[in-house]
UniProtKB/TrEMBL annotation:
<keyword id="KW-0808">Transferase</keyword>
<feature type="binding site">
    <location>
        <position position="313"/>
    </location>
    <ligand>
        <name>S-adenosyl-L-methionine</name>
    </ligand>
</feature>
<keyword id="KW-0949">S-adenosyl-L-methionine</keyword>
<comment type="similarity">
    <text>Belongs to the class I-like SAM-binding methyltransferase superfamily. RNA M5U methyltransferase family.</text>
</comment>
<dbReference type="Pfam" id="PF05958">
    <property type="entry name" value="tRNA_U5-meth_tr"/>
</dbReference>
<dbReference type="InterPro" id="IPR010280">
    <property type="entry name" value="U5_MeTrfase_fam"/>
</dbReference>
<dbReference type="InterPro" id="IPR012340">
    <property type="entry name" value="NA-bd_OB-fold"/>
</dbReference>
<feature type="active site" description="Nucleophile">
    <location>
        <position position="410"/>
    </location>
</feature>
<feature type="binding site">
    <location>
        <position position="383"/>
    </location>
    <ligand>
        <name>S-adenosyl-L-methionine</name>
    </ligand>
</feature>
<dbReference type="GO" id="GO:0070041">
    <property type="term" value="F:rRNA (uridine-C5-)-methyltransferase activity"/>
</dbReference>
<feature type="active site">
    <location>
        <position position="410"/>
    </location>
</feature>
<feature type="binding site">
    <location>
        <position position="334"/>
    </location>
    <ligand>
        <name>S-adenosyl-L-methionine</name>
    </ligand>
</feature>
<dbReference type="InterPro" id="IPR002792">
    <property type="entry name" value="TRAM_dom"/>
</dbReference>
<keyword id="KW-0489">Methyltransferase</keyword>
<dbReference type="Pfam" id="PF01938">
    <property type="entry name" value="TRAM"/>
</dbReference>
<feature type="binding site">
    <location>
        <position position="284"/>
    </location>
    <ligand>
        <name>S-adenosyl-L-methionine</name>
    </ligand>
</feature>
<dbReference type="GO" id="GO:0070475">
    <property type="term" value="P:rRNA base methylation"/>
</dbReference>
């Protein structure tokens, strides 16, 4: 530790100005040239803190009082905000949230990518940043349903969630009542005993609901009573599933889902396309913003009808299918088998014949397709997980000199790292567009168009 670091000691109290915020919702300030993280603080606050942890390069402070409130600070409408771990920045005004997310993207590009004074388009936000999620995974214990507290497995019991549709309150009340009335035991992950593990609610833009009861058992006991109870208590139920998860631990969904009432699939419309959703399907959780995201990708793609598109890390094929009517051919590659099956089903559902989906490791499968089918992409869509792309994949793309890349990222840090690799290999950044898919949280989506001259 340097000399300055030693001046900060655990247990000491300080007044500090907060100048930034992390994606996990911690305010950021400086003491003696050391970064200090303060949970509950936001940029513009002047706060009194107690130092609770000191590391080599940073310290953590406990918020004792707010001496001067930030102009961005608001009282959250959610009564559970200070306990629940679902949202991180609901105590900021929505415009403040958008400014903070734009800054997260800009700072990562500068710090990690080395991109100075790079133009970033104004972030695309929501008109109404509440009730936007189409998927909720509720945990439960003997006292009812809820979500985990921040950084813990302590359950915060709730009656509603302002990120979920209005019908979430009905689901919580109905399942809580059924557990009591039918005397259903609750799963305990420490002993691997108990019956009900959780509840999954999926909702489309039409307000139709798919309710999945997750159990530690072979079959749904008291099926008729449970189905009748859900139908009576929850509006517009399209289907009811039971998901069987007998594995130890706290992973919510098991691999096997059985439809016990109604339609086997929930259908969501994004633009002119329909997408089939099952309990285990991956799908963007904010359908309204997904339309804006995909429209932006289509705008950047500027397709003429002659292009071959490779959609890498394609998931259930939604982006590739959204572009297919403007392209010559779409090739989607994904490592998760169930997602590939969903992608093929969605292609059939929309009668799209120029899109083909393959399962495999992205780089290996891409090279096989290029060699065996003599296909070469004019545009590559990259939509990797949070860890970003494998460097070997980026090297392969660079060697192919693919004319245009659209990179869709949920992590500004790995995006910046990968963009640095691409620009050092000859790509030019044409546009950077942040999009807010998760209001109230520290997550931000970013779409980047890169191109190169052959």
């Amino acid at each position: 530790m340097n000399e300055n670091t030693n001046q900060i000691k655990i247990g000491e109290k300080y007044t500090i100005d907060l100048i930034d915020i992390t994606h996990s919702g911690e305010g950021v300030g400086r003491l003696n040239n050391m970064i200090v993280f303060v949970d509950g603080g936001i940029p513009g606050d002047v706060v009194e803190i107690e130092i609770i942890n000191v590391k080599k390069t940073y310290a953590q402070g406990k918020l004792l009082s707010i001496i001067e409130s930030s102009p961005e600070r608001v009282n959250p409408d959610c009564p559970y905000f200070n306990e629940c771990g679902g949202c991180q920045i609901l105590h900021m005004s929505y415009q403040g949230q958008l400014r903070a997310k734009s800054k997260m993207v800009k700072d990562a590009l500068e710090r990690i990518g080395g991109f100075k004074e790079i133009p970033i388009s104004p972030i695309i936000g929501m008109e109404e940043p509440l009730r936007y999620r189409n998927k909720a995974q509720f945990k439960l214990d003997k006292n009812g349903m809820g979500f985990y507290a921040k950084k813990s497995h302590h359950l915060v019991h709730i009656e509603d969630c302002l990120n979920q549709p209005d019908s979430a309150a009905n689901v919580i009340k109905t399942v809580n009542n059924l557990v009591k009335e039918l005397n259903l035991s609750i799963y305990d992950e420490r002993t691997n005993k108990g019956y009900v593990r959780g509840v999954l609610q999926r909702t489309n833009l039409q307000g139709e609901n798919m309710i999945t009861l997750i159990i530690n058992g072979k079959d749904l006991s008291q099926r008729q009573a449970i189905v009748e109870g859900i139908l009576a208590g929850v509006p517009n139920v399209k289907s009811i599933y039971v998901n069987i998860n007998r594995e130890k631990g706290n992973v919510i969904l098991g691999k096997k889902s059985l439809c016990v009432h109604g339609a086997a699939r929930l259908v969501e419309k994004i633009g002119d396309l329909s997408f089939s959703i099952s309990p285990n399907s991956f799908f963007q959780v904010n359908s309204k913003q997904t339309v804006k995201l995909y429209d932006k990708i289509k705008d950047l793609a500027a397709l003429t009808g002659t292009e071959t598109i490779f959609d890498l890390y394609c998931g259930t094929g939604t982006i590739g299918l959204y572009l297919a009517n403007k392209a010559k051919k779409v090739v989607g590659i994904e490592s998760v088998g169930d997602a590939v099956l969903d992608a093929r089903e969605n292609a059939g559902l929309n009668q799209i014949e120029n899109a083909t989906f393959y399962q495999g490791r992205v780089e290996e499968e891409m090279m096989r397709i290029i060699k065996e089918e003599a296909l070469k992409p004019d545009l590559i869509i990259l939509d990797p997980p949070r860890k970003g792309c494998e460097e070997s994949l980026l090297s392969t793309i660079n060697n192919m000199q693919t004319p245009r890349i659209i990179y869709v990222s949920c992590n500004p840090a790995t995006l910046s790292r990968d963009m640095k690799i691409m620009t050092e290999s000859g790509y030019t950044i044409n546009e950077i567009q942040p999009i807010d898919l998760f209001p109230g949280t520290g997550h931000v989506e970013t779409v980047v168009l890169m191109s190169r001259e052959k």
